[in-house]
Amino acid sequence: MEGLVRILTKRALHAQHGLRSTSPIIFPISRSFSNLAQNKPPSFGIAFDIDGVILRGESPIGGSPQALRRLYHDHDSGSLKIPYVFLTNGGGFPEGRRALELSGLLGVNILPSQVLQGHSPFRQLLERFENEFVVAVGKGDPVAVMVAYGFKNVLSIDEYASHFENIDPLAQFKHWTIKKDKQNSSPEQMSPRIDVCSERVQAAFVVSDPVDWSRDIQVLCDILRTGGLPGRELGHQPSLYFASDDLAYQAKFPSERLGMGAFRIALESVYNSIHPNPLEYTSFGKPKPFVFKNAEATLGQLALSSCGNCRGPGAQNVGGHLLKRLYMIGDNPSVDINGARQAGHPWFSILTRTGVFKGNRNHAEFPADLVVDTVEEAVDYILRKEGSL
Ligand SMILES: [Mg+2]
Q1: DSSP summary character for residue 201
Q2: Torsional class of 241: left (φ above 0), alpha (ψ -120 to 50), beta (otherwise)
Q3: CA 233/CA 47 separation, integer angstroms
Q4: C-alpha span between 382 and 389 (Å, rounded)
Q5: Residue 184, CA distances (Å) to 159, 205, 245 in order
């Protein structure tokens, strides 16, 4: 009945917009009606990497909008047929904002809970640092990310550095940076409730790709060597967290760009050259197995909420995250495929040729379960295999 209503609604929408109701639109909806009639819970879920799979820069690639539309009963209303998430090491904005941006770029209704970013696990550190003075590093709005997670005393490294005169000896040559900082500063950044120059930083969070490497390496070394107070004597190293450890990623430029892992290597190398004790840090993001465990749990929750009044064998297991198969579609063998391989059952890895990997066959060190040209091909394969075409 629900499926019938969907067909009628779609027809009504077409009528409203003066469009003819054609078979390519009715056909998939009729099929989803037959699935609904069986009240079958979804038995599989999909995790998509973003950069180099779904988007290059801000442009959709590999037929990604068409591929995603096939995972909905009705993509206008956002009613999911197949549970899926975006599992990216990228970030810089809160999940809600990223979901809105992706919805606009891809033409489907994406929920904040479907966006799992490199920095999403920082939430789990809230208990430890909720009221502590911490510094957030990276492009986008790293303070907004941390504030959205509940951290109360966060400053961006831009704002933090501005309180220490001459901390960056190259600042006078970076007029563009100073100008931009003043324009973009949010209220939280402009009115710190702490005495920045006497309060020790308890932790530094590299939320997204750092913008000004020379300044950030200098200031982070200052913070980390002095127990959190630049310009003072050496002290115990504050905690340091990276949202991911990708050496490179595929952006708009034809060849790969240096990622957060490259920044980590640079910082670590400098720090270890000027400090007696080696740098201590924790990196999150793919290929860490817990990231895939988290994605599995989220897909289970999405399956539960997407199937509504599911009945029959398997329905009770959906909430227990017992989806029978989980697909990871990525372009980076050492991150996406390596991660899915380490996570093991029930993950199945699919490597696309639209990003970092461009080989003819499979990757030698981290071979995927399947190699395809595009994400659209990957989704087509999955839906055929699962009998959901
Ligand atoms: Mg990628």
Answers
A1: P
A2: beta
A3: 47
A4: 9
A5: 11, 20, 27
Residue 200: half-sphere exposure toward Cβ, Cα within 13 Å? 14
For residue 354, the CA-to-ligand 1 centroid distance in Å is 9
Report residue 174's pLDDT band, with 50, 70 and 90 as the boundaries. confident
More reliable by pLDDT, 323 or 41: 323
Token pair for residue 145?
A: 């990310």
**In the predicted model, is pLDDT for residue 30 greater than 50?**
no
Cα of 138 vs centre of ligand 1, distance in Å, is 18
Q: What is the mean pLDDT of residues 219-247?
A: 97
- φ/ψ of 136, rounded to 5, equals -115, 135
Answer whether 90's CB lies under 8 Å from 208's CB: yes
Question: Residue 108 Cα, ligand 1 centroid: separation in angstroms?
Answer: 20
Asked if pLDDT for residue 35 goes beyond 80, the answer is no
CA distance 173 to 17: 55
Which residue do the tokens 């994605």 mark?
Answer: 295
Is the model more confident about 385 or about 76? 385
Please state, as a whole number, how many other Cβ atoms lie within 10 Å of the Cβ of residue 258.
Answer: 15
- Cα of 193 to ligand 1 centre, how many Å? 38
Q: Give burial (CB, 10 Å; 0-12/13-18/19+) of 357.
A: buried
Strands 133-137 and 203-206 turn out to be: parallel
Distance 249 CA to ligand 1 centre (A): 6
Looking at residue 235, the DSSP 8-state letter turns out to be B
Which amino acid is present at 153?
N
Q: Does residue 309 register a pLDDT over 80? A: no
CA of 172 relative to ligand 1 center, distance in Å: 36
pLDDT tens for each residue of 369-389:
999 999 999 999 999 999 876
Owner of token pair 């900082």 = 181
